Amino acid sequence: MTPEIITSAQNPTIKFIRGLDQKKNRQDSGLFVAEGLRVFERARSSGIIPDYVVSVGGRQDWGQARDIRVSDAVMARLSQQNNPSGLIGVFKQSAILGPFAPGAGDVAIALEDIRDPGNLGTIIRTADAVGVRHVVLVGETCDPFSPETVRATMGSLFGVAITRVPAPKFGAMLDEWQGEIVATAADARTDYRRSYARPTLLLMGSEGGGLSDTLAARANVSVRIPMPGQAESLNVATASALMLYEIKRPEL
After folding, report:
1. Which end of the chain is more exposed for a tag (fewer CB within 10 A), N or C?
2. Nearest-10 Cα torsion for 242, 153, 218, 180
3. What pLDDT, in 10s, does the model give residues 188-245?
4. What is the reported pLDDT for 71?
5. C-alpha dihedral over 17, 100, 158, 118, to 10 degrees?
6. CB 240, CB 202: distance < 8 Å
7. φ, ψ for residue 199 (rounded to 5)?
8. Three-state SS at 92
9. Cα separations in angstroms, 184 against 18, 79, 110, 133, 208
10. Nearest Cα to Cα of residue 103 among 170, 6, 179, 214
């Protein structure tokens, strides 16, 4: 495809891409922005093709994607990074979103009301690292396609399947779950370092309040992460990492 040369930050296409840093525009368009060569390589390995490829130069072999070449000045206006990578993609959210359909031997994680995009991105990255593909965002969990979350995933957003569900619908999903439903609790008697049956669904709650009483009551396995120090709690991304690695330990 012949590249388009754009030299003005006021170009309508550039303004449209810049506008995707706003949640409303992402919702209306169903698109999101991701940046950097590592992100593109991960998207390609997952078979996900961008709608737009914006670069400062060089041939972009992305099939039917719009190939847009811009100046360094325009790239600086588009980039969310202090040192722009020179390569930005606009992708469909539908390439990441999908129904919750894990297999009988799978591990999944459900996140309730996570509000910090950095935490969400880090958890997605950890899930990808340990080989957990299914991530469920419950209730008021923040937007997985915000620039902050996408950046924190370091490309791992393209390695997971994300399902967004309201809390009532998630309750119905739990009714159909045939394996262990795991939650952490400070007063649990069982140490988190144990064997977990498959399929396993890990429930993790918000940064401030933790898992809601409603969802905590649905867990059929409750475990404790020991904290012999003085801290009241662990960051949710740290706790999720400990739990995911322990659940997946027999396979690592």
Report:
1. C
2. -60
3. 999 999 999 999 999 999 998 899 999 999 999 999 999 999 998 999 999 999 999 9
4. 95
5. 70
6. yes
7. -75, 155
8. strand
9. 40, 38, 13, 21, 14
10. 179
Let me know: does 221 contact 185? Beta carbons within 8 Å: no
Count Cα neighbours of 134 within 13 Å in the Cβ-side half-sphere: 17
H or E segment to which residue 184 belongs: strand 180-184
Give every CB contact of residue 92 below 8 A, 6+ residues apart in sequence: 30, 31, 51
Tell the residue number behind the tokens 């469909």, with chain if given. Answer: 92
Q: What is the pLDDT of residues 3-46, one digit of tens each?
A: 899 999 999 999 999 999 999 999 999 999 999 999 999 999 99
Residue partners of 126: CB distance under 8 A and separation at least 6: 237, 240, 241, 244
Backbone torsion region of residue 168, taken as left when φ is above 0, otherwise alpha when ψ lies between -120 and 50, otherwise beta: alpha
**Residues in a beta bridge with 245:** none
**What pLDDT is recorded for position 83?**
86
Q: How confident is the model at residue 1 (pLDDT cuts 50, 70, 90)?
A: low
